[in-house]
Design goal:
The structure holds 2 protein chains of 2 kinds. Chain A is of the alpha+beta class. Helices cover about 65% and strands about 10% of the residues of chain A. Classes of the chains: A alpha+beta, B alpha+beta.
Chain lengths: ~325, ~400
């Protein structure tokens, strides 16, 4: 990435951070209850120009998937569900452009997709246009799917991310193209997870600094401070893996697939740890809705669940290592 | 240590499992969504005589209490605590939020049984002989005193014929619907733990101002509330045990609160075991029924290994719970084991629920499965009745004491 692009990425990130703190953070809880993204927020988002995929040439203002990831990651720290809802059309647009052939032209078994639905597939659905993108390390597809939102989910309720119903494929991809799509598409749940994890962790740290027990701030107790330190370390390490994987992918170097698989596994584990320790730090206040920490913890888990079983990825990493 | 299950324990387990399967589980999801347990269900349960009581039998044995009002009978082997944990596991297997909503004195029961006068026991427990559902509750936590239960800020100023109480209590199970609430306050903050007293605050009394009913991550069908007392007059006859009780036993007020935990922590741990067992069974069923998920995939070996490890850890937690309850039945101090059971079961159950949800793929996070609900429910089992951090303080303190360290 050249200097101009670096500067642009910094300014995009700052803009997203500002929107996250001023709008998404305060609207997250109500949006979860309503299961709807406020129109005013959609309008505000549109005005920022943070949908980097709106203009196809050059898409992402030349930043590529790195720009999309940065915006998603920053907005997710405001509220993961709203970030997912606002940016899902952009991700679908971006990934859809990567599909080179209509479904009929590729060897792709819809039955396999159906089977994969219960396993390891990332399924991203836009509530705006009904399009659903399925991603797996083996095959990716764009599909139209009846909207059958689950009445209840562990988190991300406002994001419109569902995976029910039988898809009708409209375009698909296999092989290296599918892998490349997967590497980029999986950055969406990763960004949501890491955003949720950091939101929870930062809130917990601020709480621990001010909350006193036995006459001392919580931060003075090793039983509180060490788990938070561990969680922060996991989050930093996972984030570093993600950035390294993205660099390998964008620069076309070998090992990108394994690196992104590792980044996904690490992000899931780190976000869970951050959410869990954050709720634990707040204690009873963490379990009730007084703070949004419990919601972010659920959102992190829901974003991780979008990617299916964790040990499937461990298996794929093992295969990559063995090969 | 006797690991053998008595016929009564087996009967309780079998009956309550049937009850949980046929009566509790069917309403579990709807109650969670509605944020309440249907009154018709509670009335029916009341008529059947089913309740979920912390067992006061451990008082006087488990937490260093005095066994007030209990008679020794060396010929009878007490099993009330073990029956209680067996019952708690089975009922929580059905739905933990539903069972902690069952009518009865709830967490308020043990302190009344432990320190109440004969008149207080008759009067307060007599409330529950009415045909309609009624509840008791227990209020210790305050907005600024959670884990630090000894730092209670609610004040009790002695006056003619009673006390004037001021302060706020929070995170009270069944607090808004309770007929009476055992409420801890201090007569003199400078006295620390020795200044604490347990009062009974009655529903509708002047100065009792109901507060919020909380939305929660899980256990949503269970009511969790707060209240504030503003110059609330509590008569002398509602000071649990009477003032002489506290004068005779320095620091007893705080010990009353802690003794309650020694009897309730194994129960809470047993409930965590019940939820984890439900999640493990559900995951196993789904994996068995859908070979695409597990048995026919390259992950078959890993799946079996994970299920095996989950089962091992579940049995470890159950063993700790049973041992803590057995010690209470044998009138042995069980504070360390009670904390171990709570700390271990809380974390193991969390891990099992998380893994169960993961094993079935992303559908586990959606509402067509109770796995996501159990995952939301289980987190609080590492928080309430003393956080995991507090349990470790208790455990390590006892370990050091056993090794000869001074208090």
């Amino acid at each position: 990435m050249n200097d101009g692009a670096e500067e642009l990425l910094v300014s995009v990130r700052e803009l997203a951070k500002s929107l996250a703190q001023t709008s998404l953070r305060e609207k997250g809880r109500q949006a979860e209850a309503d299961r709807v993204v406020p129109q005013a927020l959609r309008d505000a988002f549109a005005q920022t120009g943070l949908d980097l995929t709106a203009d196809p040439e050059p898409e992402g203002a030349g930043l590529g998937v790195a720009g999309l990831y940065a915006v998603t990651r920053e907005l997710a720290e405001g509220d993961p569900a709203l970030a997912g809802a606002l940016l899902l059309p952009a991700w679908l647009r971006h990934l859809g452009r990567m599909l080179s052939q209509p479904v009929a032209a590729v060897s792709f078994d819809p039955g396999a997709l159906d089977k994969e639905l219960t396993n390891d597939l990332v399924a991203l659905r836009s509530t705006d246009d009904g399009a659903t993108l399925f991603l797996s390390p083996q095959a990716s597809a764009l599909a139209e799917m009846p909207h059958q939102p689950s009445e209840y989910s562990v988190g991300l309720s406002a994001a419109g991310l569902t995976r029910l119903g039988r898809p009708v494929l409209t375009a698909a991809s296999t092989g290296e193209e599918a892998q490349a799509m997967w590497r980029e598409g999986v950055l969406l749940p990763i960004a949501l997870m890491l955003g949720a994890g950091w939101a929870a962790l930062h809130t917990a740290v601020a709480y621990a600094l001010t909350r006193k027990t036995f006459g001392q701030p919580l931060t003075t107790y090793q039983g509180v401070a060490f788990p938070l330190a561990d969680a922060a370390t996991w989050m930093e390490a996972a984030q570093a893996l993600v950035e390294r994987a993205m660099w390998l992918h964008q620069s076309g170097q070998p090992g990108a697939q394994q690196a992104m698989l590792s980044a996904l596994v690490a992000s899931r584990q780190a976000a869970f740890k951050a959410g869990d320790e954050s709720v634990q730090t707040l204690g009873g206040a963490g379990f009730v809705s007084e703070f949004p920490v419990e919601m972010w913890f659920r959102d992190a888990v829901a974003a991780g669940a979008l990617t299916g079983r964790l040990d499937h990825y461990a298996l794929l990493i093992g295969e990559e290592v063995a090969s | 240590m006797n690991w053998e299950w008595t016929p009564q324990m087996r009967q309780v387990r079998d009956f309550l499992h049937y009850f949980a399967q046929t009566e509790i589980r069917p309403i579990s999801r709807a109650a969670d969504i509605a944020h309440e347990v249907p009154l018709a269900f509670l009335t029916k349960v009341k008529a059947l005589g089913i309740s979920m009581e912390p067992i006061p039998a451990s008082v006087g044995s488990a937490g260093g209490g005095e066994g007030v009002g209990e008679e020794e009978d060396s010929k009878r082997v007490r099993q009330t605590n073990r029956i209680a944990v067996v019952a708690a596991e089975e009922m929580a297997w059905g739905d933990a939020a539903v069972i902690i909503t069952l009518p009865g004195p709830g967490l308020g029961g043990p302190p009344v049984a432990a320190t109440g006068t004969a008149e207080q026991k008759t009067r307060l427990f007599g409330v529950f002989s009415a045909p309609e559902p009624k509840w008791g509750a227990y209020a210790l936590t305050e907005p600024e005193a959670g884990s630090d239960a000894s730092g209670v800020q609610m004040t009790a100023a002695q006056t003619s014929g009673g006390y004037i109480l001021n302060g706020t209590k929070t995170f009270i199970t069944n607090g808004a619907r309770a007929e009476w609430i055992v409420t801890f306050a201090t007569v003199d903050r400078a006295l620390g733990r020795r200044g604490q007293r347990a009062f009974v605050v009655e529903k509708g009394q002047p100065g009792l101002e109901p507060g919020r009913i909380f939305d929660k991550m899980g256990l949503r069908a269970s009511e969790t509330s707060e209240f504030t007392l503003v110059d609330a007059f509590v008569p002398d006859h509602n000071l649990l045990g009477g003032e002489s009780y506290y004068q005779e036993r320095q620091a007893k007020g705080f010990r009353v609160a802690m003794a309650t935990f020694d009897s309730t922590r194994p129960l809470v741990a047993a409930m965590a075991v019940g939820i984890a067992r439900a999640a493990l069974e559900e995951a196993t069923d789904r994996l068995t029924q859908n070979s695409a998920l597990s048995l026919a995939t390259p992950l078959a070996g890993a799946t079996r290994a994970r299920l095996g490890q989950m089962a091992v850890e579940l049995e470890m937690a159950r063993a700790l719970v049973f041992e803590a309850a057995s010690m209470a039945d044998a009138r042995q101090p069980n504070a360390k084991m009670a904390s171990m059971s709570k700390a271990f079961a809380g974390q193991v159950a969390m891990a099992i629920c998380r893994q169960a949800m993961d094993l079935v793929g992303s559908v586990g996070a959606l509402g067509d499965s109770l796995l996501e609900k159990w995952y939301r429910d289980i987190k609080v089992f590492d928080i309430f009745e003393g956080t995991g951090q507090i349990q470790r303080i208790v455990i390590s303190r006892r370990l050091f004491e056993e090794a000869g360290a001074a208090n």
